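Minutes, project check-in
Item: structure for the 78-residue chain
Input as provided by the requester:
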Amino acid sequence: MNEKQQLKKQIQLKELQIKKLAAHLTSSDVCNELYNTLILEKAVLKKELENLNKNPMIENIKKAFRKEKLICDYFKES
């Protein structure tokens, strides 16, 4: 299984976990925290999948012309 397929499978798993947990959101703070964590993990996986689909040459050109810093620039892995 390639990396894109693995990411898609992980995203689907997170979506399933989120659906199951959504019914218990009002029951406790622990459920709310877990729900928020799952939402963030899903967003990270989607971003990784998006990055795999980007053309690195075009992204380097865009980066050269962009001068302002975005908040996402501070969270990139080195």
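Outcome recorded: Helices lie at 3-22, 29-53, 56-65.
No further action items on this chain.
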